Amino acid sequence: MESRLRVHGHPIQPMLVTFPFGLFVSVVVFDLTDLAGGPEFLGEVGYWTVVAALVAAALAAGAGMIDLWDVPDGRTRRTAVTFNLVNTAMAVLFVFVCLVRSGTPDRGVTAVLLAVELLALSVGALGVWIGGTLVRRFDPPRGEPGTLDVLRPGFESVGEPLGQLRRG
Question: What is the phi/psi pair of residue 57, to 5°?
Answer without folding.
Answer: -65, -40
